[in-house]
């Protein structure tokens, strides 16, 4: 039988959904809950802050939260469930007799504990005064069989059904960010069901009908209140679909969305996020102000600006957009072209640095602190990362941790930044502050994944579960998540955000844990094979080479925008040392191989 690598549970229809390593889905329904989730002992998951966080349990592939609110472990098969039941009995109850163990194993608030004890003693035949750790393997198996029978694992066999199906998924997005609580109507077999997207923008999976009939996807037109069909799902292969919610467009792997150019009168300073290609000349012209005013408001001496920075701007009257201008040439070179409006600002989000009305630093230097209003434009997480880099000013991790612990912020299970590499935690923190989901609910390894560089590619390196929250790109774009991967082992060792080019062979990444700092540093795009080079003095030297290469990812909800960005990647030529200096990031050391030290 093919290996089942992850699972989720749908309590509304009482169906356990398993994902197979070959991409197929197995649905188990009917029978009892223990049977549906391959959990003969009905083992529950340890909860921390309302999140399932098993500490020592092994072999599970997901979690099942029932209508009653209890959360159980899901196993790939009965044998895996029995193995963990055996381990649980030894680990948690080894020093107890059956009579002493069951009140903790099956508490009174959920069970008839005394009947459970009486039945288990009778079924197993194990003496009532014998501790579980002293039981023989044969006796332990009898105890396990008794628990399995009492929990009802083998009950209702006539109602059990296993169905291998193709499944498609729908994501609600505005083309850039995920949208929760978006409602659609699924029509299948003449019946309609209304469903809403979760916090990640995802709807429950849509199962392809066995008779190969089409599943119709509909929405309610907000103007006419009529139900309108926007697409359908059909065929023998599951797919991912993006529902561009604001315009109700239905796209399989394509689509675009027009920019909102509504006029808005600016009555107070706005925070404008510099986009790739911007320069002060065109921004000032677009907002009917002057370069001098922008520089004065932002306490800047020079004319250089960098993508992702936040500028305070007083407009000169009624503006064409609340978002800003986007000249199409490099802001680092000073070349200009006519601007075009950017999308409007979205509501403020919480920040761990300063409240939303802070516009100047505590030192009174006039420097913009952390970004408060990320924009639905190019890579909304980048201004947050840049603001954080400026705020920390080149501090090493021991000093940063006194102010913020990115592991603790995203709850990936790590205690300190010095105890575990924090590059992935920093990237995920920036994404979460821009309202992108970073945790895969229902996946067994989801918490640890958030703290691993390789986690942007795979949820579990052993089982090869691809991370469904991110899409891999063939080429880099501004703001893409760049994972440094060893081309020989396939393991990801570092991660940061693509910011600029450094020559033809390197990209400048903005990341955490780069020399124990948050800074801008160059990384090789492709591996360097071992070779020999001839020096100027004629001597031949051997070059060891480097196996690392960069792989690129974006959040699923950003994929529609990413496809547009690929035609104009927005990656400019720059110098990492100059960027760090301009942004006040001090003490950055680059090694002779043109990469920062990472751990």
Characterize the structure shown:
- With 599 residues, the protein is of the alpha+beta class.
- It folds into 4 domains: 4-159, Helicase, Ruva Protein, domain 3, CATH 1.10.8; 166-251, Immunoglobulins (Immunoglobulin-like, Sandwich); 259-375, LysM domain (Membrane-bound Lytic Murein Transglycosylase D, Chain A, Roll); 389-582, no CATH class.
- Helix content is 20%, strand content 25%.
- The strands form 10 sheets. Strands 23, 24, 25, 26, 27, 30 and 31 form a 7-stranded mixed sheet that branches.
- A hairpin with a 5-residue loop joins β28 (531-534) and β29.
- α4 (113-124) crosses α5.
- The two termini are 40 Å apart.
Concise synopsis of the structure shown:
20% of the residues lie in helices and 25% in strands. It is of the alpha+beta class and 599 residues long.
Query: How many distinct domains?
Result: 4
Which stretches of 5+ consecutive residues score pLDDT under 50? 252-266, 317-376, 592-599
Q: What distance separates the N and C termini? A: 40 Å
- Number of discrete helical segments: 14
- Going by helix content, strand content and strand pairing, the class is alpha+beta
Give the helix proportion (percent range): 10-25%
Rough shape?
Answer: globular
Describe the sheet with the most strands: 7 strands, mixed
Counted beta strands: 31
């Amino acid at each position: 039988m093919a290996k089942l690598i992850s699972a989720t549970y749908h309590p509304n229809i009482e169906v356990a959904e398993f994902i197979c390593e070959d991409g197929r889905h197995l649905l188990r329904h009917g029978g009892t809950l223990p049977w549906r989730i391959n959990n003969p002992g009905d083992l529950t998951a340890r909860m921390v802050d309302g999140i399932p966080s098993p500490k020592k349990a092994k072999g599970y592939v997901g979690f099942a939260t029932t209508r009653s609110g209890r959360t159980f472990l899901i196993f790939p098969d009965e044998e895996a469930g029995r193995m963990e039941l055996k381990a649980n009995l030894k680990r948690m109850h080894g020093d107890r007799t059956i009579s002493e163990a069951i009140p903790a194993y099956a508490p009174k608030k959920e069970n008839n504990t005394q009947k459970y004890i009486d039945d288990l003693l009778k079924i197993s035949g194990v003496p009532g005064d014998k501790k579980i750790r002293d039981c023989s393997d044969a006796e332990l198996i009898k105890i396990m069989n008794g628990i399995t029978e009492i929990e009802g694992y083998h009950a209702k066999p006539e109602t059990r059904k296993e169905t291998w199906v193709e499944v498609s998924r729908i994501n609600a997005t505005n083309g850039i960010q995920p949208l929760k609580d978006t409602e659609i109507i699924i029509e299948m077999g003449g019946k309609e069901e209304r469903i809403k997207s979760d916090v990640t923008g995802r709807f429950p999976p849509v199962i392809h009908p066995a008779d190969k009939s089409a599943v119709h996807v509909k929405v309610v037109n907000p103007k006419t209140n009529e139900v309108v069909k926007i697409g359908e799902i059909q065929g023998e292969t599951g797919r991912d679909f993006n529902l561009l919610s604001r315009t109700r467009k239905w796209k399989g792997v394509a689509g675009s969305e027009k920019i909102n150019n509504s006029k808005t009168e600016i009555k107070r300073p706005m925070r404008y996020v510099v986009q790739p290609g911007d320069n002060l000349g065109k921004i000032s012209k677009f907002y009917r102000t002057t370069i001098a005013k922008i520089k004065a408001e932002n306490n800047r001496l020079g004319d250089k600006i960098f993508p992702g920075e936040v500028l305070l701007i007083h407009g000169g009257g009624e503006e064409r957009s609340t978002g800003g201008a986007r000249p199409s040439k490099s802001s680092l070179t000073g070349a200009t072209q006519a601007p075009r409006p950017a999308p409007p600002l979205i509501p403020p989000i919480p920040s761990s640095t300063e409240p939303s009305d802070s516009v100047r630093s505590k030192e009174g230097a006039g420097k913009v602190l952390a970004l408060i209003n990320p924009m639905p434009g190019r890579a909304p997480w980048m201004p947050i990362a840049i603001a954080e880099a400026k705020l920390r000013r080149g501090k090493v991790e021991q000093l940063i941790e006194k102010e913020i612990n990115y592991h603790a912020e995203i709850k990936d299970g790590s205690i300190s930044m010095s105890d575990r590499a924090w590059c992935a935690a920093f990237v995920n923190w920036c994404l979460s502050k821009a309202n992108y989901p970073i945790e895969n609910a229902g996946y067994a390894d989801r918490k640890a994944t958030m703290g691993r560089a390789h986690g942007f590619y795979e949820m579990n390196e052993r089982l090869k579960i691809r991370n469904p929250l991110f899409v891999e790109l063939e080429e880099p774009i501004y703001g893409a998540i760049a994972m440094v991967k060893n081309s020989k082992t396939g393991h990801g060792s570092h991660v940061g955000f693509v910011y600029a080019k450094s020559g033809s062979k390197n990209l400048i990444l903005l990341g955490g844990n780069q020399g124990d700092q948050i800074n801008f540093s160059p990384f090789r795009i492709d591996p360097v094979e071992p070779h020999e080079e001839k020096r100027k003095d004629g001597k031949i030297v051997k070059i060891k080479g480097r196996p690392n290469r960069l792989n690129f990812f974006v959040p699923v909800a950003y994929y529609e925008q990413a496809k547009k960005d690929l035609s104009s990647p927005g990656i400019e030529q720059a110098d990492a040392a100059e960027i760090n200096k301009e942004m006040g990031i001090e003490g950055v050391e680059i090694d002779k191989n043109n990469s920062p030290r990472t751990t």
